Amino acid sequence: MRILLVARSLGQGGAERQLVTLAGELARRGHDVAVALLYPGGPFAAALTSAGIPLHPLDKSGRWDLAGPLRRLRALVRAWRPEILHGYLPVANLLVALAGRAVPGCRVVFGIRASDMDLSRYDPANRLLYRAEAMVAGRADLVIANAAAGLEALWRRGAPAGRGVVIANGIDTGRFRPDPAARAEERARLGIDDATCLVGMIARHDPMKDHATFLAAAAASGPGFAFVLAGSGTADEGAPPPPDGIVLHRLGPVAGVERLMAALDVGALPSRFGEGFPNALAEMMACGVPCVATPVGESAAILGDTGRIVPAGDPAALAEAWRALAPPRDPALARRCRARIEENYAVALLGARTEAVLAALARPLIVHVITGLGTGGAEGMLARLVRRSQAFRHVVVSLTGPGTIGPALRRDGIEVIALGLPPGPRALAGLPGLARLLRRLRPALVQTWLYHADLLGTLAAGLAGGLPVAWSLRCSDMDRARYGRLVGLLARLSPLPRLVIANAEAGRVWHRAQGYRPRAWAVIANGIDTDRFRPDPAARTRWRAALGVPPETVLVGMVARVDPMKDHAGFLAAATAAATLRPEIALVLAGTGTETLPGPAAHRLGAVTDVAGLYAALDIVVLASRFGEGFPNVVAEAMACGRAVIASASGDAAAILGPAGVTVPPGDDAALEQAILSLAAAPDRRAALGTAARHRVEEHYGLDRAVTAFETAWRETLGREP
């Protein structure tokens, strides 16, 4: 790709350092990268020129000079013809929005580097600038923020709600690392002995950083501490005066800041507002330094369990936190700090994630419309599909909220737009807004998931200019008392979509019986991520210890939300009867609502995040559904984990299991009881079924197979005459 990055300058700051890091990594990956600057020069310019990345001055002459830089940027875009025009910070974002249409096919990308700015602390020009950026954000092809808080703040300022993805900053862990020699030299230069706890704040002097609270906490810390402030403005005459009686070094901008970070015992960032992804925090952690921060921007997510989060503006809490982290230094904690940055925020991850979302801009767009993004089979399959698919670009629209899956998708580079509509028929009030959204996004295809989304997505696609639509059916013999009117309406509308995809043959047969007559059918079984769902002895040990279950216990579990179709009552009746005959049997219920289910003794876990680990802990996995299943994910997931599975013959469960599991008639509690008793008494058979089940999923239900099938179906649909 030809990528032109546009920024204000290459002065010393977190955003500027990230621009240099990103440009270098994209160039290393083989892309043609250039940087245009409103103001030339800066301490980071040499790093770009030495990497062979050309710099183009836009020669901004002053604060109010925008016409000249815009004219020069347009000329540069016409001459250099980038495929991607990527702004960094508000002024640059405004300019790329205005200049990006100078070359047909050039994609405009906004870079958001701050979060909930307290604009009352800035002058009217800055307030106007941030609001103008939000107003034109809808014109960008993509918005990339380095923190979820940055996107949310952009939406509050007036940008289209839901626009944007999150790509965390990348930290150069080769440069920022523990360095005993630098530590000794820097502390000697500052006159700090090993017995003194050196606390550092590396941040420019700015209202958002709250140096005043840092200084107040320093005054309250007591003996044995010394403090250092580094960053633009920290050594200026206008900076807050130091409290009496503390050792404070004001260093201003520091070259080789990684050496100073390596000398610290504790890092601090007490920001009151405005942080997106605070680089200094992650860089200090990469140097093995435990840190204290406030819950602003991504600070808490960066720290994880390695440091302390304290309320903003609370000097007493800040001082107490760094007293708790003061020497003697804990080598294990230092290693955990660094490992967290290496695993989650390496430069290679920044480059790979950015490369992926920029490359996707050139692909045909599929807009997925789904009822919601809570935990469920359809929602999980959608998430796996859009993460893995490489032939298309994907945007996910939730008719309700972002749920548990939406934020995770945004962090993985998938744009998620939550419309916040009420459930049920009242969602029809959002039809005009959905149509406007589809008209703006201009997708090649609208792929809908679940009945309500099938209805609203089809109507909105028609209002947006007759966009092609595909439906996705995720169930089979549904209870007509609950869904009959909606299914009947959709049956009458079924000639409208160009394609209807069922995830099970049972689903296709049942919907045909209800009157569905689409132009084309496809049956695509769900895809299971066999890297995530796999035999895991360590997870088995961990989970059984947490549940207090000894190794000899036969753990029988059902993982399913509470819903009439799942028949928890039947499972409990059969499994309890089996446990009465074989006392070594213990029961587990997991899934939304199971924590409050009445009935006999069982571990009631509610919704579980680590469901793959839970499968590993079970000996027998049961799905007792009476009706409604299409492709029951729980069956295939448990099989992929090498578990022995018993399932009722609802939907395609029997076809999925084949000879690698046990099938019983739906609603037959006696047959389910006997199946549980038979497997509980036969550990060798359980092991053999688990091995066969794993092989069967790898052969027939792998995720790559499903993704390829979806992409093939979409291509064929788009190539078919309407």
UniProtKB/TrEMBL annotation:
<keyword id="KW-0328">Glycosyltransferase</keyword>
<feature type="domain" description="Glycosyltransferase subfamily 4-like N-terminal">
    <location>
        <begin position="13"/>
        <end position="175"/>
    </location>
</feature>
<protein>
    <submittedName>
        <fullName>Glycosyltransferase</fullName>
        <ecNumber>2.4.-.-</ecNumber>
    </submittedName>
</protein>
<dbReference type="InterPro" id="IPR028098">
    <property type="entry name" value="Glyco_trans_4-like_N"/>
</dbReference>
<dbReference type="Pfam" id="PF13692">
    <property type="entry name" value="Glyco_trans_1_4"/>
</dbReference>
<dbReference type="Pfam" id="PF13439">
    <property type="entry name" value="Glyco_transf_4"/>
</dbReference>
<keyword id="KW-0808">Transferase</keyword>
<feature type="domain" description="Glycosyltransferase subfamily 4-like N-terminal">
    <location>
        <begin position="376"/>
        <end position="532"/>
    </location>
</feature>
<dbReference type="GO" id="GO:0016757">
    <property type="term" value="F:glycosyltransferase activity"/>
</dbReference>
